[in-house]
Amino acid sequence: MISTLGTTGPLVIRTALPSEAAAITELHLRARSTYYPDGLPFGDVDWVAAWRGSIERPEAHVLCAVRDGHLVGIASFRTADDAPADTVKLFQFHVDPDSWRQGIGRALHSACLEQWRADGKHTATLDVHVDNARAQAFYARQGWVPDPENPPAEGDHHLFLRYAVTGE
User: Among the four 28, 48, 82, 96, which has the fewest Cβ within 10 Å?
Assistant: First the structure.
């Protein structure tokens, strides 16, 4: 658990609880709606069940950032099924749009790094929507670079990024 002082109170980053799946889904959908110009895809997905499944998955991690009793950020990661054991994929990373520019993303990213190092991961990967310039800039500031092993295909709506967890 990480705790830092923020603009209104301490920010606590901890493991998410299954009972928080609905609140996590609400934050997830609010954040994603900021960069999908034509509406959110996968409208038929039961996101509450999906988040609960991620939280309960033994080999996965879902971290949440909480300030003053309110969920303000989430991160979900695990080793993808087809990836080397020392690689982790950041599947979801969102900060509530009402809480942008308060250091929450930086703190949440640091908590992810701490867990990845504790888990012995050397490389992290993620994909980011091409229309999400804000996230792309955030990831670049944290040290993420385009993944040379996974260039985007023509017509793909995502960019693939890589991070050297151990600083290699």
Answer: 82
Helix (H) / strand (E) containing 67: strand 61-67
Q: Tokens 């609905």 identify what position?
A: 22
Angle at the Cα of 124 (from 83 to 162), degrees rounded to 5? 105
The verdict on pTM exceeding 0.90 is no
d(CA 34, CA 19): 25
The dihedral of CA 45, 49, 55, 60: what is its sign?
A: negative
Is there a contact between 142 and 115 (Cβ–Cβ < 8 Å)? no
Owner of token pair 């994603």: 32
pLDDT greater than 50 at residue 4: no
For residue 147, pLDDT beyond 50 = yes
Q: How many CB atoms lie within 10 A of CB 47?
A: 18
Give the DSSP letter of residue 76. E
Name the phi and psi angles at 47, rounded to 5.
Answer: -65, -30
Please provide the size of the chain in residues. 168
- Helix, strand, coil % over all residues of the chain, rounded to 5: 30, 30, 40
